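FAQ: What does the model actually see?

It sees only this:
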Amino acid sequence: MTEIFGVPIQAFMGQLTIGLVNGAFYAMLSLGLAVIFGMLNIVNFAHGALYMMGAMFSWMLLKYADVNYWFALVLAPVGVGIVGVIIEKTMLRWLYQLDHLYGLLLTFGLALILEGAFREAYGSSGAPYDAPDVFKGVFNLGFMFLPKYRAWVVFASAVVCIATWYMIEKTKLGAYLRAGTENPKLVQAFGINVPLMVTLTYAFGVGLAGLAGVLAAPVYQVSALMGSNIIIVVFAVVVIGGMGSIMGSILTGLALGIIEGLTKVFYPEASSTVVYIIMVIVLLIRPTGLFGREK
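And it is asked to produce this:
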């Protein structure tokens, strides 16, 4: 049997695939956090709860309205985005000029409220959500079997992350967004509705979390607790990549997912803490993160 560093290749590639899938979710969630922090200066601790909400919405659409996965892939993120609009309009817009701590405390409270509401309504045990028939089965790569749905998750997250980076960094709309956060009065002088732009930016950021939740529903059990199980790791990813760095969040999320997966092969005892160890090392060497900018 072929081995890599003394580990059977099937085990090695299996954990590499799991790490890549986890990294895809880390990348999408940290991307949404980076967009919100970079554009609005808000530390959105409710991101995990909104990710959970995306998964729960897809499950509810199937259970109560018989809406399949493909429609849920559009409708659930839009629903989460609408919730984001309500949050931004009613609460967050009063905090933009205040210290980051106020936004963190508010969104942390929102996360507890949302998680508690869904846990009260549906319990804390997970519910299954089947992948579409087209993604059932595996690809035979010769040295391993790759589940089709996991391959789809990696592909879809890569497309979303690259498209988001391109929109923010390379288009006129992205330039308006960045300018609107740095000098809103000047941008408004050009006839651009900055408050609306800020609202839509937050809705887009949390919509990314909702989309990640829909993609995660067939991989993990749909549960009210699934957001709290991942959000701490995602915040570590954002800190390592650099708060507000779009590309930093994408690359760091994928890399840390892979590192976490391979750690389970070579040193399983450290697999649950390796991300935080890397975070401590990075902060000691570069406090702004790997891709963060010095102020």
